[in-house]
């Protein structure tokens, strides 16, 4: 099982190298993690300055909770060889721009974030 990135073509060579070394590998391609905002690379900027500078523009992303990714991985592992050699793409329930995601975080946090 290999966790990779949804829509990231630059990840493909690494996927292929690992597949060549490991055989019938299941690749799980995930959207951006919700946790990137709370405990990952984006949290410091949001906490310290109250803003996020990110070149996402109006691109919509199906952000996903890492626990949902874990549920997919556990389900795939429980199926034995059913998913061997396959690629699974996992994403969140709806598309949000980066600005919309930050607005939802601001609402939940009770503070202004941009």
Q: Can you tag this structure with a few keywords?
A:
114 residues, alpha/beta, 3-stranded parallel sheet, 4 helices, 11% strand
Largest pleated sheet: 3 strands, parallel
The run of helices and strands is EHEHHEH
Overall pLDDT confidence: 93
Helix share of residues? Answer: 25-40%
Q: Write down the Rg.
A: 16 Å
* Terminal residue distance: 37 Å
Please give the count of helices. Answer: 4
Total DSSP E strands: 3
> Any idea what the shape is?
elongated
Task: Give the strand order, joined by hyphens, for the main sheet.
Answer: 1-2-3
Class per helix and strand makeup: alpha/beta
Beta-strand share of residues: 5-15%
Low-pLDDT segments, ≥5 res: none
A few lines on this structure:
With 114 residues, this protein is of the alpha/beta class.
Give the secondary structure arrangement, pairings included.
Blueprint: E1 2-5, H1 12-22, E2 27-30, H2 43-49, H3 66-78, E3 87-90, H4 98-109
Parallel strand pairs: 1-2, 2-3
Task: Describe this entry's structure for a reader.
This protein is an alpha/beta fold and 114 residues long. It is built from four helices and three strands; from the N terminus they run βαβααβα. The protein has helices at 12-22, 43-49, 66-78, 98-109, and strands at 2-5, 27-30, 87-90. It has a three-stranded parallel beta sheet, covered by helices on one side. It starts with a strand and ends in a 5-residue tail after the last helix.
């Amino acid at each position: 099982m290999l966790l990779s990135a949804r829509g990231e073509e630059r990840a493909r060579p690494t996927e292929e190298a690992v597949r060549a070394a490991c055989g019938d590998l299941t690749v799980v391609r995930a959207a951006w993690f919700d946790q990137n905002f709370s405990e990952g690379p984006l949290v410091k900027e949001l906490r310290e300055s109250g803003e996020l500078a990110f070149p996402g523009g109006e691109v919509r992303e199906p952000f996903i909770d890492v626990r949902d990714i874990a549920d997919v991985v556990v389900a795939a592992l429980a199926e034995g060889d059913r998913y061997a050699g396959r690629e699974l793409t996992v994403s969140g329930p709806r598309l949000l721009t980066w600005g919309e995601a930050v607005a939802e975080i601001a609402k939940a946090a009770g503070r202004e974030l941009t």
